[in-house]
């Protein structure tokens, strides 16, 4: 008969969970480039494209600018993760998202449908 030890229910210390540290290499590393300051609103994406930010087209049919479109509104105003290219809302097609939300243009258009947004 084989005896199996019970599984310990105690949490392991963090160091036991972490992967082993890599040994320091003898090669010299390139100097670190200081990070850019964080972007605090989406308006800066129009003038400055960065390779490490994903782009997005936001679908918000009939709700953009209203309280029910709050996620889309927040992405336009504050997204640091996505550079929003356009918003799809046929009710407000042809307008600028900044004009709808804040009264000043930001260069992000509202499109009629997906084919319009991709063109």
Topology:
Elements lengths: L13 H4 L36 E6 L10 H9 L3 E7 L8 H5 L8 E2 L2 H5 L1
Parallel strand pairs: 1-2, 2-3
- Describe the largest sheet: 3 strands, parallel
In terms of structural class, how would the helical and strand content be classed?
Answer: alpha/beta
Spatial shape: extended
Number-wise, the strands total 3
Please give the radius of gyration in angstroms.
24 Å
Structure commentary:
With 119 residues, the chain is α/β, with parallel strands linked by helices. Helix content is 19%, strand content 13%. A three-stranded parallel beta sheet has the order 1-2-3. It starts with 13 loop residues before the first helix and ends with a helix. 18% of the residues are buried.
Give a nutshell description of this structure.
The chain is an alpha/beta fold and 119 residues long.
Q: Which keywords apply here?
A:
single chain; 119 residues; alpha/beta; three-stranded parallel β-sheet; 4 helices; 19% helix; extended
